[in-house]
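Meet the record:
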Amino acid sequence: MWDIFLQTLPFFALIGLGYGAGRTGFFTPEATAYLTKFVFYFALSAMLFRFSANLSLAAIFDLPFVLAYLWGTLFVYLLATGVALIRKRGIEEAAVEAQCAVIGNVGFLGIPMLVLLLGEQAIGPVMLVLAVDLIVFGSLIVILITGSRDGRMSLGVLRTVGLGLLKNPMIVSISLGLIVSGLGLPIPKPANEFLSILGAAATPGALFAIGASLATKSAEKVAVAGWLSFAKLVLHPAAVAFAALVMLPVDPYAAGVMIAAAALPVAGNVYILAQHYGVAPARVSASILVSTAASVVTVSVVIAAVSL
């Protein structure tokens, strides 16, 4: 446990460095926005493309894995939705809170950290978790909020969801990489070096950006943020573990990667969606702050457990 904590510490130290730079004003919110854009559209995309170009679709896609992750995630998603509705929150707020309870920072934190700590063979399972989060649950929140406001499901909602997926650089880079892999196209050495250098900027850039973005977030609504952080850091990995280790025949190593990915703190893109739709952004902000702070310990515990 202590060894794993020491291994995860540099990742969280980079987040802390970014947080300090943001809190002191050395790194402005505008600078954070541009750094995030660089990581999201360039560095992380290069890393994902390079990873997926060296994998086959068969190596990534695993139906029992997908079903286990979907079952565990949907269980917690519905639980968080039910708790929000019991508190007399509308469908829109319930959808946002449910997103906080199940969508972790797989792209910016999970890919660099889990691949380094659990080995390069973790690439496939982590990318599959990321794809399910983006395609299934990233679409679901848009459908629920937009459908709730319109009072019905329309082609416009589906068009918005489809365009959102097509414009997401993580989905695009993974898809293009798999196409290159599937066609057996070689990547020229200069291009591979270019992708390697650019992709190497993803880890420090993403972690610093996470910390700097946390500097602008508040810890209001602490009670609700505490519940959502508990759901994300404890209930989500527990439900996924039950599905992957008890219910379905998932490979033990892949199950461990899935559980570790489920233990990650609330993702920053949930706040972007909440702010875009004007639904409980302060609540999401607090959940990201609380879950990220608590994950310094909880993520180490979960990774230590799956590494046994």
Residues 100 and 266 are 6 Å apart (CA to CA). DSSP finds 15 helices and no strands in the chain.
